[in-house]
Model the fold of this input.
Amino acid sequence: MPKTCLCALLYLSLINDTVLQYSFINEKCSFLKSKQSFRTTIIGAQWTVASKIKCLAKCLEIYSDSCQSFMYNTATLKCTPGANVQDGLFSATSADEELYVKYPNFRVQSYLSTSICAIFFNGHKTYSDARDICRVYNAHLFVPRSAESYALFKSMIDLSQNAWVGLNDVDVTWKYMAEDDGQEMDISSILSLFAHGGPDHYQQQHCITTFIESEGQLEDEECDSKNTFVCQTEFSNC
Done:
């Protein structure tokens, strides 16, 4: 019997209706109830089961490590096994559907006096897809608030590839909205982090990314470009 199957059958528990956790010897893993209304790519047929715990148990039993998420419909009791969030194509869920995702390995990252709880994703996604992946994990794209926090961010990413930060002016040009609090950010406070003194909106570029040609300084870029990214969440999730 696969180890993950044994974990599911013997050590599965529900924590506060938001976290399903299983453990095996010293190994623990959690499936988090997402606040985001999205479903991931389906990896198999639906089942009818009496509870979300049994839904996860069957997903792990049949698909083992491929079971990275699942949908549970509280009205129909339908259980749908799902893929890794990073590999998924999202579609809206109904009001009765709950998405649970295998929680990634968020870690406390520190540099000088700055610390964050975050994880680097090496997959290349558009700005909106990267933002949605972070939201599925109840997190947000990293937002540079200071030179020190940005230095920490750069220590986490691969500087040979561009990486999104959580700033865009898609709705109103020159009005940069931050993903961490949903408020407008005074871009003048971080102009020193930009490669050419600030964004220039060349060819309608409305999202902010690192720029490999300038050793990781910031630039604006088309939001449909595909870059790596960092998700940040609360310290309680680390």
The CA atoms of residues 140 and 167 lie 11 Å apart. Confidence is low (pLDDT under 50) at residues 1-10. Residues 52-63 form the longest helix (12 residues).
